[in-house]
Amino acid sequence: MATPPAQAVRLRLVFDNQRILRRSLRESGLRRCWLLLPPELSTVSDLAAHIAARFRLRRSCPSCVILSIDGFVLPPFESTCIFRDNDIIRQQFAHTTILAD
């Protein structure tokens, strides 16, 4: 398993649907904010859980922390080494999709 970046990585976080944020967070302008990637987080799943905890998303949207960069979903098992300073990560709603053969 890859180790997380040793150097601080700043991420720009955008919530696609601001309604999942508490009113106080929306009024503070946190729909679009900076987030420092904690060095102890080693996977995208760890970061998603961190975002859910920091922004108190568990009640409003317990499984909605799906992250993407440039329109591409980040797999939860991917290492946080994928992130570069100033990346824009988006939080999206999880959608249920039925795939046809």
UniProtKB/TrEMBL annotation:
The Coilin N-terminal domain extends over 9-91
Query: What Pfam families does the record tag this protein with?
Result: Coilin_N (PF15862)
Q: Superkingdom of the source?
A: Eukaryota
Q: This protein is called what?
A: Os12g0288801 protein
PANTHER family, A to Z: COILIN, COILIN P80
Q: Which organism is it from?
A: Oryza sativa subsp. japonica
